[in-house]
Structures are given as C-alpha cells and as structure tokens.
Design goal:
Number of strands: 18
Distance between the termini: 47 Å
Largest sheet: 8 strands, antiparallel
Shape: globular
Structural class: alpha+beta
Oligomer: single chain
C-alpha cells in the first residue's frame, strides 16, 4: 500500500497543509525532520510517557504524549491526518508498529515485533524457517546456560542482553567461570533472560535496507548500503567501510538478508541488520533493528550528497513516492566511519581536536567539544571520511589514530602518567 501526499483542505491550519508522519520516541536531532521536509512532509513527535519529550521548537508540527492508551493516541494521530508512522529510536519500535496497524497504515507486523527486538527469539525463528542462525540459548537461568554450553561443540561464546539496542556490550566467554562472571555483570534481576551464543570469529557487516509492499502485498526488500565493520577485542565498533553492493559477497549478504527480513515480519520502511559471514556457513544474522541506526544519524546530509543514499533520505523518498529511489549511476566514493575510543578517562585536547576535524577527508562528525569529560571504553564520537581516493582515506585514518596516541585524550588532573591509550588492532 503506497502512501500518497494528502490534498490540503481549504481552511486547514498551516501545519496540516503538509503530509504528516508520526515519529515515535524521537531522538535528539531526529534525522527524519530535515529529510522529510523537502518532500512536503512534516513530523509529529509521539513520546511515550516513560521517555523524555523532545525539546520544544518549530521542527515538529505537533507533540503528543502516549500515556498507555493505544486507542487515544491513534485517535489523536488520525485527527491530525497522519499518513505514516516511523520509530524514532529503539524505544519507539513496538509502539510504532502497533500504531501503524491500528491506523491501517503500512508498517511492520506487530505480531512479530518481539522477534525483531530479541536476538534469542530471532535466531530461533530463523532456524525454524531453515535459515542459518547462531547456535544459542535464551534463558533467565545460569544453570541452563552452563548446561547448554557444556553440551555444544563450541568453545568460544558471547553472553549478551537479548535486546540488540541494549547499551551493555556482550561479554566474551571461554570457560564456565567466564560465563558465571559475565552473568553476574549482565543479569540485574532474577527473571531477566540473557542470550548465550557461539562467538563467530568472522567478518561483520551492517546492511541498511528499505522495504515496500508489492501490488500483491508481499514485501520487497532493497539493500541500500553495506558496511564492513571492524571491532576492538572488547567488541567496540571502531571502523566501518562502505563497500560496493555488487559481487558475490554482496549478493550472498543481500539474498540472506531478504529471507531473514521476511521471516521476522519486516514489511515496511527502513531496517539495519548486523551479519557475520562465516566460512562454510555463509551469512548469519546477529542482530536486526528497525529504528534509525544510532551510529549513522550524523552522516545523513554528507552521505546522501556523496552517494545518493542515507536511510532517512531513502525513507523520505519511500513516503513521498511509494517506491525506492535508485541513484541513476553509481557514485565511486569511498566512505569510512571512524570511532574515537579513549582508553582512559579524559577530555579532548582543543588544538588536536581542531587538527582532527580539519583533515581533508573529514566530511561530518558527531558533536565533539574540547574539555568534555570522556569515559574509558565508551565511544567519544564519530567521524565520517569521504574521498574519491582510497589512499586519502587511509592517510587521514592513520593520522586520527596517531592523534589518539599522542595527546588527543588529555588525562584528568592527577591521573597516572602511564594511562596512555594502547594501539588498536
């Protein structure tokens, strides 16, 4: 079911002379607002009562607070003439699916929302459908996890929260004692399930997709971008390279992802899937999310201008035209996202930060401010590098890592002199 722009009614208030899209639980600097505006769409912010409301301003046509009644929130959106419902963050995915279904608007299947929000259930659903998935167990009981680990052929595991949007990183485990220690760190209530799965020591990829319905209602999944991801030893993403969507690898990733999305009930709009490519097994889904990629928002304008694609802009094209916008000819641009990862508590040194953001290939950054306190082991920010020459990207990436090692992260007063950041893999 394609969405079309409604005809403005005579005498309608100014904010109703645009097509309206509800954005559920939007994040700060919601990428949908600037992406939809050129197509004549405005956004309505729908904020669950448990979430902070977005700052007031002219960006949104209206603000609604969802206080638990699906009926009342859907009725309010219907009165406004909302024509689409999008999740603005992970906190808004379930409510967005339910509101779209209630309003009879295109959206993902609310009956399978739990599968998309839980890596353990997603893996089980894929295996039931005959699709390769990680060997895993989802359980609130440590004893069950230990029994499962002892019965498998794997010797290397990851223990993780089942919600792929959960902020805690997975813990790598190789022994029963490792599992016990990680369990104590991750499980905060006795009934909280965790997922113990085999650790797949293989290349990781993040695929951005856009789904629209065919005339018969069947979903059509288009892969709009493939990023090759590199992680530190403690599972922090520190680099992602945009790769071409052609060739045998891209084809294998694409075909697998289409099957997985259909199985997990993705029927409309953007999604991003994290896969491992395992020798002798092929692609394996590690996580699926249908909210905007939190590592990708800052790239919207620069990446769209350079490559013709970005999830928020692709979504805007889908809403405005009912189809996926294809770039007429491939744009040969090298794109790399680079994370800043302090290895000790620190602040950013002002002059080196200026040198970093002035590098020739740096096209966009997250907000980076000198003297802002940074925590060890947490991403301090992101940079997007763009160039037609891969060598230019390599040189600037090396400069960034050199700056990290030579003073970009200023240790707090009184910190030990030996707290320098080690080199990354």
């Amino acid at each position: 079911m394609a969405l079309t722009r409604p005809t403005p009614e005579t005498g309608a208030p100014p904010e109703h002379r645009h097509a309206l899209a509800a954005v559920v639980a939007p994040r700060t600097n919601d990428p949908h607002v600037p992406a939809l505006a050129p197509h004549g769409w405005r956004c309505v912010a729908v904020t669950p009562a448990s979430e902070p409301s977005p700052a007031p301003g002219a960006d949104y046509a209206a603000h609604l607070s969802h206080r638990g009644s699906l009926f009342h929130t859907a009725a309010s959106l219907s009165r406004l003439g909302v024509r689409a419902v999008l999740p603005g963050s992970a906190a808004g995915t379930e409510l967005a699916d339910r509101l779209a279904d209630r309003l009879n608007l295109p959206g993902n299947d609310p009956a399978t929302c739990d599968l998309r929000r839980d890596t353990g259930w997603a893996s089980a659903a894929l295996r039931d459908a005959g699709i390769t998935a990680p060997h895993s167990i989802r359980t609130p009981r440590l004893a069950d996890a230990l029994t499962w680990a002892a019965s498998t052929a794997a010797t290397d595991y990851l223990l993780e929260h089942p919600d792929p949007a959960h902020p805690h990183r997975p813990h790598r485990c190789t022994t029963a004692d490792d599992i016990r220690s990680a369990w104590d760190a991750l499980q905060h209530t006795d009934d909280q399930p965790l997922v113990l799965r085999e650790h797949l020591n293989a290349p990781h990829y993040r695929l951005h997709t856009l789904t629209r319905p065919r005339s018969d209602g069947a979903p059509v999944h288009t892969v709009t971008a493939i990023w090759a991801e590199t992680h530190t030893d403690d599972h922090l993403l520190h680099r992602a390279d945009l790769i071409r969507r052609h060739g045998l690898l891209a084809r294998a990733l694409t075909l697998y992802t289409r099957r997985a999305l259909t199985t997990l009930g993705v029927q409309y709009g953007p999604a991003h899937a994290t896969l491992a490519f395992v020798p002798d097994r092929g692609p394996v889904l590690l996580a699926l999310r249908t909210d905007p990629d939190p590592d990708h928002d800052f790239t919207a304008q620069a990446l769209h201008q350079a490559t013709g694609h970005h999830p928020a802009h692709d979504t805007a094209q889908l809403l405005a035209t009912g189809r996926h916008h294809r770039v007429p000819s491939p744009r040969h641009v090298h794109a790399v996202k680079v994370a800043l990862l302090p290895r000790h508590d620190a602040t950013l040194e002002a002059s080196l930060l200026s040198s970093l953001t002035s590098l020739p290939t740096v096209a966009a950054t997250t907000e980076l401010h000198a003297h802002t306190p940074l925590q060890a082991g947490q991403t301090a920010g992101w940079l997007l590098l763009l160039a037609h020459d891969a060598h230019a990207i390599h040189e600037d990436h090396q400069t960034i890592r050199d700056l990290e090692l030579t003073g970009l992260y200023r240790a707090p007063e009184g910190a030990a002199a030996g707290d320098a950041a080690p080199a990354r893999p």
